[in-house]
C-alpha cells in the first residue's frame, strides 16, 4: 500500500508505539481461538504497529494522523474478547488503550473512569467506601472497562443487575470521532447505545461514567446435587429469591466439574453442581434453600477467605470453557438464552436431547425483571456442519443463540442491523477506518449501493 509509515510515526511525535514483530503479533490477537471456526479465519491477521496513547489529546493526534493517510485503526482494551473483536482484519494500527487507566472520580452510586482501567482496579478504588461495579466478566482481573463496554455483554452481577445493554447500566461516554478534524462527543442516557457494544467500529471511548452497586462481603459456595434438573431448579429458585443478596448463580451438569483441577477434592465425581456468590448475611437463608432442593454444600468461603487463593468466579461464565479446553482442546462452546423458560422445560429438553455432546452450563441472569436461564454450553466439536445443525436446532425450539463463532457484530448477537449504530458510524467514521470488516451493515451498504 502507499502508506508512509515513517511520516506516520513522525506525526505521532512523543506518543508511545511498538513495532517489534513479536509484540505486534501478540497485541493484534485476542481469545478468538475458543472457536475452531474463528481459528482458521483470524490466525494470520495483524497490525503494522501498536500505538499506546496516554490521554484523550494523544488519541486525537493518532486519529488525525490515521485519517490523513487512510490507515485503519482497531481499538484494543486487554484483548480478552472471544470473537476477534479487536483483531485488525485489514492491518493498520491497533490503538492500545491500556495506559489510559485512571479512576477519575467516584461518588455514592457512580464513577467516572478512563477506558483502559481494569475492572478489578475500579473496585480497588471504590470498595473501601462501600461501592463496586455492578457486573463484570469472569475476566474481571484482566479486562478493561472500555473493552467490556465495547465488546462484552454481562457476567458476575448480571443475576441482579441484568446485562450491560439494560438501560441504566452505562450512564455516559466521551467518544473521539475518526474525521479529518476529530471531534469529542459526549453521549448520555439512551444515546450511549450508539457506541456501546459496537466493537470499536464507531468511535473511540475515552471516558465512561458508570453506575456503582453497594459492595457486599461476598461469600463463595459450591452446592452439589444428584440430579441435574434439581440443580437447575435450585438455580432458578435462588435467582428468584428476592430476599437473598447474590452476585453469581452458575449451574454445571456432570461432567463439567471434572474439568476443574482445583476442585477435584471438593466435588464428588458424577455430581452436578452450583457455583454461587452470595452476601455473607444470606448464607443462613441459602442453607435452607439448599435443604429444600436436597443439595449438599461442599465448599464455603467467607469473603475474607475468598480474597485469597482460587476465586470461584474464575470457573464460571466463559472461564468454564477455558478450563475445559485446557483438558480437551476439542471442546468449544455455545451462548444461549432460554427466554420465558421459567419452568426450565427447554433447558431440560436440550439437556436430554444432546446428552454429552452439548454439556449444560447455566448462568442465571435478570432479563426483563425475571431471573432467566442463559447458557454457555460446552460443545464437543466435530465439524462446522454439525455445529451449525446444533445451533439451528436450538433456534427451531425457541432458544436464542448468540453465536460465538463469528466476528461480525450483527451475526453474534443482535441478528439484525442496529440502525442507530450504523447512522452513528456514517457520521463519526465517514471513511470506514474503524475496525473495518466487523460491522455487516456497513460492509453491505456498499453492495446495496
Ligand atoms: P478487548 O477484547 O480488548 O476489546 C473488546 C472490544 O471492545 C473490541 O471490539 C475493541 O475494539 C472494543 N474496545 C476496546 N476498548 C475500546 C474503547 N476505548 N472504545 C471503543 N471500543 C473499544 N465477556 C462477557 O461479557 N462476560 C463474561 O463473563 C466473559 N467471560 C470471559 C471469560 C474468558 C476466559 C474470556 C477469554 C473472555 C470472556 N469474556 C466475557 C469476553 C471478554 O473478556 C470481555 O468481554 C471483556 O470485558 C473484554 O475486555 P477487554 O478489555 O479485553 O476488551
Automatic annotation (TrEMBL):
Gene3D superfamilies: 3.30.465.10. The keyword Endoplasmic reticulum does not apply. It comes from the Bacteria. Keywords: FAD, Flavoprotein. It holds the Pfam family FAD_binding_4. GO terms for molecular function: D-lactate dehydrogenase (cytochrome) activity; D-lactate dehydrogenase (NAD+) activity; FAD binding. Transmembrane segments: none annotated. InterPro entries: FAD-bd_PCMH (IPR016166), FAD-bd_PCMH-like_sf (IPR036318), FAD-bd_PCMH_sub2 (IPR016169), FAD-linked_Oxase-like_C (IPR016164), Oxid_FAD_bind_N (IPR006094). Residues 43-215 form the FAD-binding PCMH-type domain. The keyword Iron-sulfur does not apply. One of its GO terms (biological process) is lactate catabolic process. This is FAD-binding oxidoreductase. It comes from Romeriopsis navalis LEGE 11480.
Amino acid at each position: 500500500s502507499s502508506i508512509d509509515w515513517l511520516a506516520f510515526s513522525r506525526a505521532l511525535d512523543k506518543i508511545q508505539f511498538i513495532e517489534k514483530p513479536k509484540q505486534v503479533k501478540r497485541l493484534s490477537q485476542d481469545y478468538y481461538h475458543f472457536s475452531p471456526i474463528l481459528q482458521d479465519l483470524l490466525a494470520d491477521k495483524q497490525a503494522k504497529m501498536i500505538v499506546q496513547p496516554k490521554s484523550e489529546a494523544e488519541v486525537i493526534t493518532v486519529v488525525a494522523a490515521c485519517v490523513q493517510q487512510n490507515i485503519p485503526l482497531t481499538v484494543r482494551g486487554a484483548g480478552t474478547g472471544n470473537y476477534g473483536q479487536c483483531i485488525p482484519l485489514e492491518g493498520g494500527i491497533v490503538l492500545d488503550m491500556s495506559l489510559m487507566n485512571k479512576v477519575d472520580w467516584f461518588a455514592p452510586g457512580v464513577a467516572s473512569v478512563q477506558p483502559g482501567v481494569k475492572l478489578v482496579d475500579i473496585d480497588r478504588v471504590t470498595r473501601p467506601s462501600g461501592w463496586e461495579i455492578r457486573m463484570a466478566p469472569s475476566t474481571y482481573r484482566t479486562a478493561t472497562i472500555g473493552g467490556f463496554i465495547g465488546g462484552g455483554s454481562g457476567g458476575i452481577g448480571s443475576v441482579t443487575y441484568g446485562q450491560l445493554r439494560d438501560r441504566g447500566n452505562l450512564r455516559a461516554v466521551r467518544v473521539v470521532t475518526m474525521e479529518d478534524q476529530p471531534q469529542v462527543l459526549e453521549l448520555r442516557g439512551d444515546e450511549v447505545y450508539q457506541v456501546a457494544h459496537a466493537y470499536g467500529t464507531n468511535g473511540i471511548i475515552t471516558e465512561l461514567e458508570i453506575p456503582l452497586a453497594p459492595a457486599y462481603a461476598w461469600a463463595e459456595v459450591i452446592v452439589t446435587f444428584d440430579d441435574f434438573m434439581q440443580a437447575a431448579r435450585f438455580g432458578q429458585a435462588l435467582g428468584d429469591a428476592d430476599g437473598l443478596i447474590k452476585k453469581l448463580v452458575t449451574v454445571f451438569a456432570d461432567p463439567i466439574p471434572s474439568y476443574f483441577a482445583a476442585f477435584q477434592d471438593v466435588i464428588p465425581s458424577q455430581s452436578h453442581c452450583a457455583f454461587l456468590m452470595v452476601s455473607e448475611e444470606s448464607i443462613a437463608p441459602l442453607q435452607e434453600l439448599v435443604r429444600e432442593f436436597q443439595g449438599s454444600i461442599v465448599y464455603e468461603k467467607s469473603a475474607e477467605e475468598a480474597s485469597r487463593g482460587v476465586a470461584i468466579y474464575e470457573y464460571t461464565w466463559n472461564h468454564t470453557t477455558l478450563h475445559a479446553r485446557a483438558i480437551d482442546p476439542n471442546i468449544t462452546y455455545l451462548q444461549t438464552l432460554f427466554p420465558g423458560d421459567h419452568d426450565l422445560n427447554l433447558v431440560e429438553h436440550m439437556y436430554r436431547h444432546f446428552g454429552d455432546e452439548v454439556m449444560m452450563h447455566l448462568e442465571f441472569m435478570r432479563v426483563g425483571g425475571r431471573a432467566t436461564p442463559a447458557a454457555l454450553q460446552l460443545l464437543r466439536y466435530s465439524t462446522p456442519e454439525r455445529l451449525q445443525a446444533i445451533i439451528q436446532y436450538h433456534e427451531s425450539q425457541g432458544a436464542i443463540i448468540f453465536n460465538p463463532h463469528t466476528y461480525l457484530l450483527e451475526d453474534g448477537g443482535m441478528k439484525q442491523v442496529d440502525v442507530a449504530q450504523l447512522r452513528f458510524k456514517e457520521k463519526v467514521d465517514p471513511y470506514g477506518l474503524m475496525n473495518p470488516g466487523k460491522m455487516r451493515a456497513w460492509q453491505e451498504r456498499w453492495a446495496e449501493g
